[in-house]
Design a protein that fits this description.
The protein has one domain: Porin (Beta Barrel). The chain is about 10% helix and about 55% strand. It has an eight-stranded antiparallel beta barrel. A hairpin with a 4-residue loop joins strand 5 and strand 6.
Length: about 160
């Protein structure tokens, strides 16, 4: 077990050794906040053209049943189509693939698995991103509507603060 743990920690150290100069952002989703769900997340650059996303939130959404609170988690990845130089890395046009899970205090579950096209603008250390796409939506453990596979439009707006 100690050997396995040592190998895993060593692999992580080797993998992360090139990450020191990479950009990291903390962000929130203002549209979600306006709907009653506060979110906080991170985008971590993994290469000149890619990043990973983590996001979590909690609240009572205005579009859900009264008294029904939601805890939400999201994980995703971004591919930047025209990467900028070092100071503007992870900005410009991109494609996002992500999955968001929503857990309701009533015991219900909802999810959104999607692909989106977006753009991120930088102003010094502040970022603004907007993205639109299609995703499979579920709510209350079922597909939403009678559409084929419940594929519906989806969108997001993110405001962030860059670490470097």
């Amino acid at each position: 077990m100690k050997i396995l743990a040592t190998l895993l920690i060593g692999s992580l150290a080797i993998t992360m050794s090139g990450q020191v100069e990479k950009a990291t952002e903390i962000h929130t989703r203002p549209i979600s906040l306006l709907q009653g769900v506060g979110t906080v997340g991170f985008e971590i650059q993994t290469s000149d053209m890619t990043s990973i996303l983590f996001d979590g939130g909690y609240g009572q959404s205005l579009i859900d049943a009264p008294g029904n609170t939601v805890t939400t988690f999201m994980v995703g990845t971004r591919l930047y189509l025209s990467p900028k130089g070092d100071e503007e890395s992870i900005s410009g046009s991109y494609i996002t693939a992500r999955h968001r899970s929503r857990f309701y205090n009533s015991g219900s579950y909802g999810a959104n698995t999607n692909m989106m096209y977006g753009k991120k603008w930088l102003n010094d250390r502040m970022s603004l991103a907007a993205e639109f796409g299609l995703g499979r939506q579920t709510l209350l453990n079922q597909d939403i509507g009678n559409t084929i596979g419940s594929v519906l439009p989806t969108w997001a707006v993110t405001i962030g603060l860059r670490s470097k």
